[in-house]
Amino acid sequence: MRSLTYTRFELLRVLRSRRFVFLALGFPLALYYAIAAPNRNELDLGGTGISAPLYFMVGLASFGTMNAMMSTGARIAAERAVGWNRQLRITPLSTRDYFRAKVITGYAMALLTLAVLYTAGVTLGVSLSAGNWVRMTLLLLVGLIPFAAFGILLGHLLTPDSIGPTLGGATAFFAFLGGTWFPITHGVLKSIAESIPSYWLVQASHLAVGGHGWSVQGWLTMAAWTAALAVLARRAYYRDTRRV
Amino acid sequence: MASGGIELQGLHKAFGPVRAVDGIDVSIGRGETVALLGPNGAGKSTTIDMLLGLLPPDSGSVSVFGKPPQDAVAAGAVGAMLQTGNLIRDLSVRELVTMVASLYRDPLRVDDVLTLTGLEDVARQRTQKLSGGQTQRVRFAVALVSNPELLVLDEPTVAMDVESRHAFWTSMREFASGGKTILFATHYLEEADAYADRAVLMARGHVVADGPPTEIKAMVGTRTIRATLPGAGVDGLAALPGVTHVERRGDSVVLSCSDSDAAVRAFLDRYPDARDLEISGAGLEQAFLLLTGDEE
User: Which residue of A has its CA nearest to B127?
Assistant: First the structure.
């Protein structure tokens, strides 16, 4: 119960940091309108039978939520820079409660991102069955878990100066290899893609456009990444008690 | 509550070639207020980091109320104001203190802490809009609200002006009167003298003295008397009570004193025509060098 108060204030802090919220939500939104709006009347994108506004909406849903989740790292790096991490370490806050607060705030940002993108999609004529909205959203949320751990890991390894470019590079890399911008359908690239978590995040978002969700390999890959990143994040957190 | 105080035994910590803490043994009884006194680079902050479990010692052991520091921290027995540090943004002062209080089983009332630290007037202000002195007071409030058995303050008054410094020590005393154990680091001898039961003097990673502040003050409190006094014999001056060393510089004489009060009385009594009298204290830095026998 006690740690819920802590989580509540963490959430409050995220929502109050206007510049952060504005950028985290504004960037995918602007990108979406820039790509989808000019093609709003394209109802059969590249012969897929999928409309352009829908196709780009699901693409940005995975990209935007991945960004939102990993942005937790930038906030952690900023807290470390002012020594807050050390201050917290001399309180009884447990590692689990600390991680939980960080994951929940990451999810709050991800949900806001989805709400904004879905609304934008609807304004451009996207219409899906209730089942498709729900299935896509639920699997996306599950698929974000390894990115939550990755964000925390980077936050405890990097400084506010270095984390910006690193997060930018990491999300670009994950988005590219995960098939956010163009479908990866065969060859070596596909086997590489299938071994990284962003590919499966993209598959989750494709549930809304006739995708099949996750295969057994998908679930296993995501579980393995989550476990590995969580162990590393935990280790980074434990080591991170020095004056920065 | 478990018995026992704070025990630091044979603590060593090196950063590369720098031996920040080089063999420290200190034990602090429950309820004591102890000043950790020393110049910059003496190893005070490194010692405190090890005491709080933020830094593992290379060798030696730390015990806080009979437990490893991490366990004492997890039990909520420790509150600390670290030397470096700022506040996280986007919360009001009251919210920040409330958030920290929520992590403890038996915290003080947030309102009481805000009153004690003189923060009622800025309780609704966002933390990023505070002055340096106010920020320090909020950091103090954050350390206090846990109602800790052990309160550790690492150079708490560094960014404060004279007035806030005074207010700070007043509130610290009020807290200390509840039988709490307090350790504070400072490089002001006056702070140690005024607020601690005991001072542990550190220099270059060692404890060079440990005792009541008055004793430490006498040890490091060498004063010099300087006066214009042509023609007086050095031997006669050296025989004055409280004078340890005499030097003549032209028409002036410089007396180093172990007891400047006695010396100045006798001096004026015996040499009524002395002029331009000046009494000055040796700086703490200088005194440390004296004590450590280091001439660098």
Answer: A13
